[in-house]
Known about the structure:
Layout: H1 2-25, H2 28-65
Amino acid sequence: MLxxxxxxxxxALLLVLSGGMYVFTRNRRYLKFAWQTLRxxxxxLLLFAVLFVLERYVLVGWRVLx
Length: 66
């Protein structure tokens, strides 16, 4: 969980910095980078959620059946 929190802090910092760079430079590539970063972070969080559910319910349930 510590790695996940560190990842979320880094993503938030990256989004704030790229948003700030867009405000100062008005260069749209910073918005594109922020959007790509947000999509990657959400995808990674969904992957972690699926793995958590898999570990929590499926593998524990499988052990009960054996």
